[in-house]
Design goal:
The complex is a heterodimer of chains A (510) and B (215).
Chain A: H1 2-30, H2 36-54, H3 60-65, H4 71-90, H5 97-112, H6 119-152, H7 157-188, E1 200-202, E2 206-208, H8 210-229, H9 231-240, H10 246-264, H11 266-274, H12 287-301, H13 309-339, H14 349-356, H15 366-373, H16 392-402, H17 407-416, E3 419-423, H18 426-432, H19 440-447, E4 453-456, H20 457-467, H21 481-498, H22 504-507
Chain B: H1 2-39, H2 42-72, H3 80-107, H4 116-142, H5 147-174, H6 179-212
The chains are: A mainly alpha (510), B mainly alpha (215).
C-alpha cells in the first residue's frame, strides 16, 4: 500500500518540478540567455543535491500535514495538491505548492470535522502580499541601480552578456538547490516515518540514509517534471507577462533569492541571533509569487510599459483557485476513498486517544535547543527542529547529515529530545515511589511537583534540582562517583514510572 | 559553460573591433584613391583598389565568423539580430567605396582641374561620415550613452556631402562642357555621394537599435 501512496508523492514531485522550474530559470530561458536543456540539467542536478543533502531542513508545511492523521488521508491531500498544481501548470500559471497543500488540508479538516485554523488562510493572503511587495521593491531597486551603473560603466556588450549569463546560472543553481531543499518535505515528508529504504554505503565513501534515498526519489520526480513539462510556465513568467531583457532576467532571480534568504531563512535568523544582532521578521515567502513580484518591480522602473495586465490577472486568479481547487478535490477524493475503497481517511477522537498512547518519539523544539545551547552550538541542530521523528536512529541520521556534531554530542541531543510526556500523577507516586528506591529528601522533593507535566526528562530533573540538592549531581570526584551513578539510575527510574508515552524503540520492535 | 562563453566573448570582441578597423581603414584608402586619381598618379590609384579589395574580403570573412559564432553560442540573444544587421550594412559602405573606385578605374572620367577641389572635398566629407559611423558603432558596444553624440556627426557629414555634390553638379551643368561629359561627371559625383548615403542608412538602424537596447 505504501508504494501506491508513494506514487501520489511522486506525482506531486513531478508537477512541482513542472511548475517551479520557472521560478529559478524561467526568466533566463525566456530571455534566451540560457538554453532550456542547459537550464533543465542544472536545475535537476541542484534540485537533487538540495533535496538529498539539504532536504532534512525545516518544513513548516509538513508540520501542518502532520495534522492529517491517517495515511489514506495524507495520500489524498498529496494527490489533490498534485492535481491542482498540475492543472495550473497546464494553464501555464505559476502557483505555490505550499498554498495548495494548505488548501487541501482545509478540505481534509472539513471532511473529518476537525477544527480549522483560519489563521492559515490569512497566512496565504498575507504571503501573496508580502512576497509580491518585498520582491517588487527589491527588484525595482536593484534594476534601477544596475541599469544606472551599467549605463555609466563602459563594459563591452559581449562581456556584459557573458557576466549576465554566468550570474543567471549561478543564481539559478542556488535557487534550484533551495527549491529541492525546501520542497522535498512537501513531496516526500509524509513518508519519512515509513520509508521502505535501508541505509546504503556508496563505495565506502559516504552513506545514504533511508530518508535520503526517499528524498532522492522525490527529487528525481521533480527533475523529470522540470524536463518534461516546465516550458509552459517558463513562457508565462519570462515572456507572456513582460518581455524581459537579460539584465532584467538576472535581477528578477536575484531579487527573488535575496527576499527568500532575508525574509524566510531560519538559518540567517539563528546566525543573527547567535551574533547578538537584531533579526528580520520571518515572512512566509512563496517563490512563485516572489518571481512575479520581481517582474512587477522591473515594470515599475519601466513605468508600466510592456506588462500584460490580462496575464497578471490570470496568474492572480490561479493563485486564488489553487488552494480552493485542492480543498474541493480533497473533500470529494476523501469521500470516494472512504466510501468506495473503504480506506480510513481520518482518525476518530477515540482512535486519536489510543494513538496518544503511542510515542511521539523525538522532537527538537525551542526548549530543547535552549537546553542544548548550554553545552553546544545549536545553530545547525535548529535545521531539524519541530520535526516529529519516530526513532532514535532516524534522528541520529538527520543529525549526521545536518550537523558536524561528534558522536558523543549526537547522543546528548538524542537523549535530550526524547519526548517522554511525564505527568507527576500522585497516585503513581504513592504506589511506586518508596524509601527502598529513593532517599527521604528525594521523595519529599517529588511532593512539590505533584500533577506537573513535563515533555522531556531533563525538564523534570531541572525542576527537581531546584527543589532539592539530593537530586543534584555532585562534582565529579572519586568520592562522588557512586552517588552520581545512583542518581542517574534513580532519574531513569523516575522517568519509567511517570512517563505516559511508551518508549519509542520498544514500540517499533527494536 | 558560461566560462567558455567568456573566452569566446573576448575573441568576438577583438573580431568586432577588427571589423570596425577595416571599415575605417577602407574609407581612408578610398579618399586617398580619389586624391591619387585627381593628381593623375594612376599607378598609385590602381594600388588603392587592390588594397580596398583586400579589406573588403577581410571584412566579409570577419562578418561571417562573427555571425556564426553569435548564433552558435547564442550570445546577446536580445540584440543579436540588430548587431548582425548593423555589421551587414556596414559592409555595404566598403562595397560602395570599392565600387566607386572601380568605376573610376573602368571609365577613366576626364575631370577638368577646376573641379578637383570639389571632388576631393566630397570624398573627404564622405570619409568623415564613414569614420563617424564607425565611432558610433564602437560606442554601441562599449559606451552606450555616446552613440547619439556620434550619430549626429554622421548626419551632419551626409548633409555636407549633399550640399557639395549639389554645388558640384550645378557648376558642371552650368559649364561649357559637352552634355555627354557633363552627364559622365555627374555620375561620379553620385558614386562618391553614395558612400555617405550608405553611412546614413546604417546610422538610422543604429539609432533604432540604441532605443531598443534599454537593458
Amino acid at each position: 500500500m505504501i508504494y501506491i501512496y508513494l506514487i501520489g508523492g511522486l506525482f506531486l514531485g513531478w508537477s512541482l518540478g513542472a511548475n517551479h522550474a520557472a521560478n529559478v530559470f524561467g526568466t533566463a530561458v525566456a530571455s534566451r540567455m540560457v538554453r532550456f536543456k542547459t537550464a533543465a540539467s542544472i536545475c535537476s542536478l541542484f534540485v537533487i543535491l538540495g533535496a538529498v543533502f539539504g532536504g532534512s531542513g525545516t518544513s513548516a508545511t509538513l508540520e501542518k500535514l502532520g495534522a492529517v492523521n491517517a495515511m489514506a488521508g495524507a495520500f489524498m491531500v498529496t494527490l489533490a495538491t498534485a492535481l491542482s498544481v498540475y492543472w495550473m501548470t497546464k494553464l501555464k500559471l505559476p502557483v505555490s505548492t505550499s498554498q495548495a497543500i494548505i488548501g487541501a488540508i482545509l478540505g481534509w479538516n472539513l471532511f473529518s470535522g476537525s477544527v480549522t485554523d483560519f489563521r492559515s488562510l490569512t497566512r496565504i493572503v498575507f504571503s501573496w502580499g508580502a512576497s509580491i511587495l518585498l520582491t517588487a521593491l527589491i527588484s525595482a531597486f536593484l534594476y534601477w541601480l544596475l541599469r544606472g551603473v551599467l549605463k555609466r560603466s563602459r563594459i563591452h556588450l559581449l562581456t556584459l552578456d557573458s557576466y549576465t549569463r554566468t550570474g543567471l546560472i549561478i543564481v539559478g543553481a542556488f535557487g534550484a538547490y533551495s527549491l529541492g531543499a525546501n520542497n522535498i518535505a512537501n513531496v516526500m515528508g509524509v513518508f519519512v516515518a515509513v520509508t521502505p529504504f535501508h541505509d546504503v554505503t556508496l563505495a565506502g565513501l559516504f552513506t545514504l540514509t533511508g530518508v535520503q534515498q526517499l528524498f532522492f526519489l522525490g527529487a528525481v520526480a521533480i527533475a523529470v517534471g522540470v524536463f518534461t513539462y516546465s516550458r509552459r510556465v517558463i513562457q508565462t513568467v519570462g515572456n507572456d507577462l513582460l518581455k524581459i531583457s537579460p539584465l532584467a532576467a538576472f535581477v528578477v532571480v536575484l531579487a527573488e533569492s535575496l527576499v527568500l534568504f532575508l525574509f524566510s531563512s531560519r538559518t540567517l535568523e539563528s546566525w543573527l541571533l547567535t551574533h547578538g544582532l537584531p533579526t528580520i521578521p520571518l515572512v512566509p515567502i512563496s517563490s512563485s509569487q516572489a518571481v512575479i513580484g520581481g517582474i512587477i518591480g522591473i515594470s515599475i522602473v519601466r513605468r508600466g510599459r510592456g506588462i500584460r495586465y490580462k496575464v497578471l490577472g490570470d496568474i492572480a486568479l490561479g493563485w486564488l483557485a489553487t488552494p480552493l481547487l485542492a480543498g474541493v478535490v480533497t473533500f470529494f477524493g476523501l469521500f470516494v476513498l472512504q466510501n468506495v475503497f473503504n480506506q480510513q481517511v481520518y482518525l476518530t477522537a477515540e482512535q486519536q486517544a489510543v494513538q496518544r498512547q503511542h510515542p511521539v518519539g523525538y522532537l527538537i523544539d525551542r526548549h530543547v535547543l535552549e537546553h542544548l545551547g548550554k553545552e553546544m552550538d545549536t545553530s545547525e541542530i535548529a535545521r531539524i527542529r519541530y520535526r516529529v521523528i519516530p526513532e532514535s536512529s532516524v534522528l541520529d541520521d538527520l543529525l549526521k547529515s545536518n550537523t558536524r556534531l561528534t558522536r558523543r554530542q549526537r547522543q546528548t541531543v538524542v537523549r535530550a529530545s526524547e519526548v517522554v510526556d511525564i505527568v507527576m500523577d500522585p497516585r503513581l507516586r504513592s504506589r511506586k515511589v518508596d524509601a527502598k528506591k529513593f532517599s527521604q529528601g528525594q521523595i519529599e522533593a517529588l511532593l512539590w511537583i505533584d500533577m506537573e507535566k513535563y515533555t522531556y526528562g531533563w525538564q523534570l530533573f531541572a525542576a527537581l534540582e531546584r527543589i532539592s540538592d539530593e537530586w543534584k549531581p555532585r562534582p565529579e570526584t572519586a568520592a562522588n562517583r557512586q552517588f552520581n551513578l545512583d542518581l542517574a539510575a534513580r532519574r531513569q527510574l523516575l522517568v519509567q514510572i511517570f512517563r505516559t508515552s511508551k518508549p519509542p524503540d520498544a514500540v517499533n520492535g527494536k | 559553460m558560461s566560462f567558455i562563453h567568456s573566452k569566446k566573448s573576448k575573441v568576438l570582441e577583438t573580431q568586432i573591433d577588427e571589423f570596425l578597423d577595416t571599415v575605417s581603414r577602407s574609407s581612408i584608402i578610398f579618399k586617398n584613391g580619389i586624391k591619387k586619381y585627381l593628381d593623375g598618379e594612376i599607378d598609385l590609384f590602381e594600388g588603392t583598389i587592390g588594397e580596398i579589395s583586400k579589406l573588403e574580403n577581410r571584412a566579409d570573412e570577419l562578418r561571417h565568423d562573427i555571425e556564426s559564432q553569435l548564433y552558435m553560442y547564442s550570445l546577446i540573444p536580445e540584440i543579436r539580430g540588430d548587431v548582425l544587421g548593423l555589421l551587414e550594412n556596414m559592409d555595404t559602405v566598403i562595397n560602395a567605396e570599392k565600387k566607386s573606385l572601380t568605376q573610376f578605374s573602368v571609365e577613366m572620367p576626364v575631370i577638368p582641374a577646376e573641379y578637383d577641389a570639389d571632388y576631393l572635398a566630397l570624398a573627404d566629407v564622405c570619409m568623415n561620415s564613414a569614420e563617424s559611423l564607425v565611432t558610433a558603432v564602437r560606442a554601441f558596444f562599449h559606451d552606450f550613452n555616446m552613440v547619439k553624440n556620434y550619430l549626429h556627426k554622421v548626419y551632419f557629414y551626409e548633409k555636407e556631402a549633399d550640399k557639395i555634390s549639389d554645388r558640384l553638379k550645378r557648376r558642371i551643368f552650368a559649364s561649357e562642357l559637352d552634355l555627354s561629359q557633363k552627364i559622365h561627371l555627374r555620375y561620379f559625383a553620385l558614386h562618391i555621394e553614395d558612400i555617405s548615403d550608405h553611412a546614413e542608412d546604417v546610422a538610422d538602424r543604429l539609432g533604432i537599435s540604441t532605443i531598443k537596447r534599454n537593458f
